[in-house]
Design a protein that fits this description.
It is a single chain. Helix 4 (113-171) packs antiparallel against helix 6 and helix 5 (220-231) packs antiparallel against helix 6. Residues 149-157 and 159-204 have low confidence and may be disordered. The chain has six helices and no strands. By secondary structure, it is mostly helical. 67% of the residues lie in helices and 0% in strands.
Length: 253
């Protein structure tokens, strides 16, 4: 039984060999014919270009025809490679063109030193602009609230001055005795030392809070905040500026 199987397999191989040989010959002949047509067309096209006998439209058609012939030769070569058929010396297949893939480029790594410096400078300017806007809004809010307080104090001062002037007008100039209060005691004259807003009082910037440090590690924004807080004489505004300084320092740590 095994002998019959071997004989049957051998018979199939013997019958298939001529068929495969015929197919190999057919593929080789087709490649040979297509290559000959391509070479002849190239020579004819070059001759027409030298003589200038082709118009623009004819040149385009001839170029398209040459491209089709090249594609046919490439297809013939691919078929021979798939069948593992060796080429005879008179035939040659063009090497496939390998198109390299573009390498991935990291924009951050490709930045030059000047570009990185410009990017950092733009980021710093954006941070300073935001800080300036916040500082301006806070100053406007404090200034808007300041006239109401100053006006009230001024009005009270003017009222007190008018009252003392009336008292002087009533009791002064004739040597009249000083007024007595309800208990019959002499009224004490008002003191003149240390009144708010007096000519002897001076506003000072004051020392910075103890929890803000000495500012030795400040960047540009923090340094501007600190200097603005140290120069500010208004207590409310100074408090706001120191608060902004603390928030900024906490955000950069």
């Amino acid at each position: 039984m095994r002998l019959y199987k071997h004989l049957f397999t051998l018979l199939i191989l013997l019958l298939a060999a001529p068929v495969q040989a015929a197919r190999d010959t057919q593929l080789l002949e087709r490649l040979r014919a297509d290559q000959a047509a391509l070479q002849a067309a190239r020579a004819d096209f070059a001759r027409h270009r030298e003589t200038g006998s082709l118009g623009a439209g004819e040149r385009d058609e001839y170029a398209a025809y040459l491209e089709r012939l090249r594609e046919r030769v490439a297809a013939d070569c691919a078929a021979l490679a798939a069948e593992r058929i060796s080429l005879p010396p008179d035939l040659d297949c063009p090497q496939p063109v390998i198109v390299p893939r573009p390498a991935a480029i990291d924009p951050q790594a490709e930045q030059t030193e000047a570009e990185r410096a410009a990017a950092l400078d733009a980021e710093l300017k954006a941070g300073l602009g935001e800080f300036d806007q916040r500082l301006l809004r806070e100053q406007e809010r404090v200034k808007a609230a300041r006239p109401r307080t100053a006006g009230g104090a001024g009005q009270a001062g003017r009222s007190g001055e008018g009252g003392s002037g009336d008292a002087r007008a009533e009791g002064g100039g004739t040597g009249a005795p000083a007024e007595k209060d309800e208990r019959g005691e002499l009224a004490r004259p008002p003191t003149t030392s240390g009144s708010a807003g007096g000519p002897g009082q001076q506003s000072t910037a004051g020392e910075p809070p103890q929890d803000v440090g000495d500012g030795s590690d400040d960047d540009v924004v923090a340094r501007q905040l600190r200097e603005a807080a140290e120069r500010e004489t208004d207590p409310e505004m100074k408090k706001k500026l120191w608060e902004e300084y603390r928030k900024y320092k906490q955000g950069t740590r």
